[in-house]
Design brief:
- It is a single chain.
- The protein is of the alpha+beta class.
- The chain has one domain (9-144).
- The chain has 2 helices and 9 strands, in the order E-E-E-E-E-H-E-H-E-E-E.
- The chain has helices spanning 66-83, 96-111; strands spanning 9-11, 16-22, 26-35, 41-49, 55-56, 88-91, 117-122, 128-130, 139-144.
- The two termini are 24 Å apart.
- The mean pLDDT is 91.
Amino acid sequence: MDKPFYEFQIEDQAQTFQFVSVGKRLITKCIAYRKTTIPNFYNLAMGDVGADGILDVDVISDNGDRDRILATVIQTLLRFSGEYPSAFVLFAGSSPTRTRLYQIGISRELEHGVTLLNFWGMDESGNLSIFEKNKSYIGFVVSLKANPKRL
């Protein structure tokens, strides 16, 4: 993705990334990659960091910088995947609207034609298939293209 993105801080062996969203307000955001019970699978969570330090994945910031935030997520995916090349990353929005937003972001990434990432979509039955632009999904899986494993 060649879109502008936020510079981010890398923590926890490239499993946590923090940055500041600059729009109507300054908002500290966090993207966290956490192991699941499935080997080589990680969950991606993103949200605002509250004053108490707790990540709020349900908050609607509406800070006017959606595209830059999505580009930042892609950059952290690339960085995370570079550190963990055999990893598969699972994610979905905290609401159907957010999941749709992520689907739009993936579609835009794939429109550029050159991406280092593989994208799959999960349907309502839990089945995975290669991401298709105009198909609805409830979640997504991403991996580095250099990953020799297949789902």
